[in-house]
DNA sequence: CCACTATGAATGAAAG
DNA sequence: CTTTCATTCATAGTGG
């Protein structure tokens, strides 16, 4: 059975707001963004310079700038950085395993059946303040594209202290009450509610 | 085999297979929640009807109902709504800058009324199967869709006024930010890299 | 034509 | 609520 070629992968929606004139690229179908070499270059440069998670503003600006080379949208830039960062980390993590035992390297599959106080391990990255370890985070100050605090965050691998447990019941959603009650008849429409 | 959702669920059956996360049988529910078509449908309906931030109690009930279609927990519902809502907004924000200034607008009004055109819920392939089936409708007895309100709901979240929340850089965007230059080409400054 | 790979896109989960 | 992280889905591109 090979359903990989079947036409079921219609993927509803995704109508590309534009009128289909987006292919400024190599005759790309409007399926998904296909970055041009220039765009990739710029993005890569930015990434190399240290930009990991651009803010909305920067995404907008970058997007605007890159539109010069071809069709591109903000979300493309957003996804690009997300993916790049993720993949890099993914690779690093794969090769990592760092020093064998970190003592508390548990990485157990949390059983989130009854979330109450499950600890969340986190990488063994341990952020050493003021210590440049292996991450080549070179921030080229020469690349001041925008006045905004460009690349500040970098990869701040801070220890994720747990502290927020999801509560199914209780007084977790204290803020929800009275926030928006624009659907009073909810119980009505949904009997079970 | 309890294929309640038997049929052509192309996507179903994914269930994190092949990872060998043999911690404890795995098969059941390790990994993250993978909503079924029905679950998504119901959640979407609720969202569409205006529910955005369900209370703890509502989450509980929804979760209970949805558990019929498959494994689900309260927190899944909670997260679902949070994400859905957040992304609705995020989309709105990132989709801008699209109707840029390099092209003339052919449709003037379309610009305002096609915000959510962009990224519809696509959950792909599920629609195909979920529609023409005869099994899925089993518990829907209680889930009767009401006559939607006259006013266009789901868009009543304009109460927010955030400073960072913004889009449309087109008009307010000025290249006079730096003393650098005034032309768009970004590569120029990045060329040194 | 089919398998594999790189990567764009999406989304569940969580942290802040 | 907002933003980020991790994992997965989907597809263009390429090799056999």
Q: Unreliable segments of chain A (pLDDT under 50, ≥5 consecutive)? A: 1-28, 98-188
Shape of chain A: globular
Summarize the biggest pleated sheet of chain A: none
| Oligomer designation | homodimer
* Arithmetic mean pLDDT of chain A: 56
Percentage of residues assigned to helices of chain A: 25-40%
Care to count the β-strands of chain A? Answer: 0
In percent, how much strand structure appears in the residues of chain A?
Answer: under 5%
Rounded to the nearest angstrom, the distance between the terminal CA atoms of chain A is 42 Å
Biggest interface, which chains? A-B, 68 and 73 residues
> If helices are DSSP runs of H or I spanning 4 or more residues, what is the number of helices of chain A?
4
The ordered string of helix (H) and strand (E) elements of chain A is: HHHH
Structural class of chain A: mainly alpha
Q: Give the C-alpha Rg of chain A.
A: 23 Å
Nutshell version of this structure?
The structure is a homodimer of 193-residue chains. The first copy, chain A, has 193 residues and is mainly alpha-helical. The first copy, chain A, contains four helices and no strands.
Throw out a few tags for this protein:
193 residues, mainly alpha, 4 helices, 25% helix
Q: Can you tell me about this structure?
A:
Chains A, B: It is found in: Nucleus. Chains A, B: InterPro entries: HD (IPR001356), Homeodomain-like_sf (IPR009057), WUSCHEL-like (IPR044555). Chains A, B: This is Homeobox domain-containing protein. Chains A, B: GO terms for molecular function: DNA binding; DNA-binding transcription factor activity. Chains A, B: Keywords: Developmental protein, DNA-binding, Homeobox, Nucleus, Transcription, Transcription regulation. 2 copies of one chain form a homodimer. Chain A is mainly α. In chain A, about 25% of the residues lie in helices and about 0% in strands. The first copy, chain A, is built from 4 helices and no strands. Chain A has helices spanning about 35-50, 55-65, 75-95, 185-190. The first copy, chain A, is globular, with a radius of gyration of 23 Å. The model of chain A is unreliable at about 1-30 and about 100-190 (pLDDT under 50). The interface between A and B is large, with 68 and 73 residues. Chain A binds a DNA duplex (16 and 16 nucleotides) through helix 3.
């Amino acid at each position: 059975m090979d359903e990989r070629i079947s036409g079921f992968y219609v993927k509803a929606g995704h109508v590309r707001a534009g009128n289909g004139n987006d292919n400024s690229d190599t005759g790309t179908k409007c399926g998904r963004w296909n970055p041009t070499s220039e765009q990739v270059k710029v993005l890569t440069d930015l990434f190399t310079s240290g930009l990991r998670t651009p803010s909305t503003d920067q995404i907008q600006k970058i997007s605007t700038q890159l539109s010069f080379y071809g069709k591109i949208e903000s979300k493309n830039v957003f996804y690009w950085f997300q993916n790049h960062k993720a993949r890099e980390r993914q690779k690093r993590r794969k090769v990592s395993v760092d020093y064998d035992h970190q003592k508390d390297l548990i990485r157990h599959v949390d059983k989130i059946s009854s979330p109450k106080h499950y600890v969340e391990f986190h990488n063994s990255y341990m952020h050493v303040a003021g210590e440049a370890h292996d991450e080549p985070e070179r921030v080229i100050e020469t690349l001041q594209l925008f006045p905004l605090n460009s690349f500040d965050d970098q990869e701040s691998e801070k220890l994720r202290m747990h502290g927020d447990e999801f509560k199914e019941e209780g007084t977790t959603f204290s803020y929800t009450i009275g926030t928006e009650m624009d659907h009073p008849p909810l119980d009505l429409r949904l009997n079970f509610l």
